[in-house]
Design a protein that fits this description.
The protein is of the alpha+beta class and 352 residues long. The protein is built from 10 helices and 7 strands. The chain binds adenosine-5'-diphosphate and magnesium ion. Magnesium ion binds next to helix 9. It catalyses: ATP + protein L-histidine = ADP + protein N-phospho-L-histidine.
């Protein structure tokens, strides 16, 4: 975790003091006391604040101090001192090597996670492509036909200016609609690094429903929203949370594909829950969760779909946990699946 500059300086100062204390103990005690081994603790603590170069330099300093202590110590058996100093140095070197390895592994994991999130982002947009194309095409087609109409109104003799003006107003409204859709897609693909800030969850849900509209219409899904109008802002990365909402909507559409059209109902409800949190409940009337182990749906690569990746829900869980939230799945009363996720509310305190 990157510490702020002042905390980092303070931590480094603390480590310096500990090193001085170890040096004093190593110098003033008998050769038989292998105090130098405690430098390993300094290395371990420093590995969280220093880069690889800094850590190697620190390790070199620790090895040098061990050597100096050995020459300054006046008590005990020289041979035991020699062996203990060598062991101390070895411990320092091994600890440094392992710390460097561990930090590199951590960086690799973070990199892989970031890459997965980018894939998730692309795949949500990909899965919505048909719906999105339709959402942009519709106003464009309307604009074309309104333009033709206004040409006709103006070609009349005398020209019907009033009608032409009305048609132009429609063109303007449709142009705004198209650019709104584009703005939403931009929002959905923007921002490589997560950004946690307060946002309106109801609004975020409405936008995802708008982007999935033609997908929902095509599958004859009836959507009901029950929004708490006094919902406080939630804290999280808006774009990432919208990925989760998109995943849940698309999964619900898939799950209800096999049931009669009249029963394809999807309900999204926002509410305040205990502990200063906000929840979104997504309930469908589809095929339902695997009875024996509902939690399996969150396993990576677990899918029952021919073209499925089985990553949507696993990524959704990672996203929510990274945003201080959680998600669970349970069978819905009367059939279907019920997904609930929670996020902390934005209490106005600055978050780093
Ligand atoms: N709303 C739902 N109703 C029933 N089953 C679901 C629902 N959502 C997810 N599942 C099950 O969980 C599996 C994993 O979902 P997900 O992680 O989104 O991957 P994918 O959609 O690619 O299969 C799905 O294949 C499906 O079997
Ligand atoms: Mg899915």
């Amino acid at each position: 975790m990157p510490a702020s500059p002042s905390r980092r300086t303070l931590a480094l100062l603390g480590l310096g003091l500990v090193m001085a204390a170890i040096f004093a103990a190593d110098t003033l005690t008998d050769y038989a006391v292998a105090a130098a081994c405690f430098y390993a603790a300094v290395i371990l603590a420093a590995s969280r604040i220093l880069g690889p170069r800094g850590l190697v330099l620190l390790a070199a300093a620790c090895v040098a101090l061990t050597g100096v202590s050995f020459f300054l110590t006046r008590f005990g058996t020289y041979r035991i001192g020699l062996v203990n100093s060598a062991i101390g140095m070895l411990v320092i070197v091994i600890t440094t090597y392992l710390s460097l390895k561990m930090e590199a592994a951590k960086a690799a994991v973070q990199e892989a996670q970031a890459r997965l999130l980018r894939v998730a982002r692309a795949s949500t947009v990909g899965e919505l492509t048909t719906s999105i194309a339709h959402e942009v095409n519709q106003p464009l087609a309307a604009i074309a036909s309104s333009a033709e109409a206004s040409q006709r109104w103006l070609a009349q003799d005398p020209p019907n200016v009033d009608k032409a003006r009305q048609t132009l107003a429609r063109i303007l409204a449709d142009a705004h609609r198209a650019s709104d859709v584009i703005a939403r897609i931009r929002g959905l693909t923007r921002g490589a690094c997560p950004e946690r800030r307060g946002f309106d969850l109801n609004q975020a849900v409405l936008e995802m429903l708008a982007l999935s509209r033609s997908e929902l219409e095509q599958h004859a899904v009836i959507v009901t929203t029950q929004f708490d109008d006094e919902l406080p802002l939630v804290l999280g990365d808006r774009v990432q949370v919208q990925q989760v909402i998109g995943n849940l909507i698309l999964n619900a559409v898939d799950a209800m594909d096999g049931i009669p059209a009249a029963a394809r109902r999807l309900t999204l409800r926002s509410l305040r829950v205990d502990g200063g949190r906000v929840a979104l409940s997504v309930r469908d009337h589809g095929s339902g969760l695997p009875l024996e182990a509902p939690e399996r749906v969150f396993d990576a690569f677990w899918t029952t779909k021919a073209g499925g990746l089985g990553l949507g829900l696993s990524l959704s869980r990672s996203i929510l946990e990274a945003n201080g939230g959680q998600i669970r799945a349970e069978p819905a009363e009367g059939g279907g699946a019920h997904f609930v996720f929670e996020l902390p509310i934005d209490d106005g305190v600055a978050h780093g």
